[in-house]
Amino acid sequence: MSKTSQAAGLHRASLAKLHELDAALELMYYGWRGMTLEADDYLAKQGLSRPHHRILYVVARRPDIAIGALIEVLGISKQALNRPLKLLLERKLLTSQRAPEQHRSKLLRLTAAGQRIEQRASDHERKVMRQAFERAGASGTAAWMAVMEAIADNN
C-alpha cells in the first residue's frame, strides 16, 4: 500500500473521544498531514523536510529578511533554526549577505534553485487547499478562514 493511501484513511480512524473538541483536533492533525503529504514526499526526495520548507516559504515572501526576523516569524529558537538554515545555505538554496547598515545582521534571499523547490513544495499544498475549498464551497471556505484566523490569533 502506498504512503498516500495509508495516510488518506487515517483521518477516518475511530479514536476514542475524550473531549467534545477531539473530533475537531483530529481533523486539524490529519488535515495538516493530508495537506503536506505530497509536499513532504517531494521535499524528502530533495533531501529536505518540513522545517526547510518553512524557511524557504518565509524567505520567498520576505526577501532580505534578517535571521532575527526569520526566527520571530517562525516562532522558533536560534538553535532550532541553525541546522536547517545551515543545510539550505550549504546547498545554495539561500544566500546570506551582511546588511549594509548593520554589519552584525545577515540578510537571507532565495537562489533560483531555492525558489524552484519552494514553489513546487507549496504548489503541492495549494493543490490540496484548492480542491478542499472547491469541495467546501464559498461559505465553507469563508468559515474555515474565519476559524483559522481565530486560531492563528493565539500566537
Protein architecture, described:
With 155 residues, the protein is mainly α. The protein contains 6 helices and 3 strands. It is 68% helix and 8% strand. β2 (94-98) and β3 form a beta hairpin.
Please sum up the structure shown.
This protein has 155 residues and is mainly alpha-helical.
What is the N-to-C succession of helices and strands?
HHHEHHEEH
**Helix percentage:** 55-70%
If helices are DSSP runs of H or I spanning 4 or more residues, what is the number of helices?
A: 6
The separation of the N and C termini measures 38 Å
- Helix/strand class: mainly alpha
Q: For the CA atoms, what is the radius of gyration?
A: 18 Å
Q: How is the main sheet built?
A: 3 strands, antiparallel
Strand order of the largest sheet: 1-3-2
Give the amount of beta strand, in percent.
5-15%
Principal-axis shape = elongated
By DSSP, the count of extended strands is: 3
Determine the oligomeric state from the structure. single chain
Compute the average pLDDT: 90
Low-pLDDT regions? 1-7
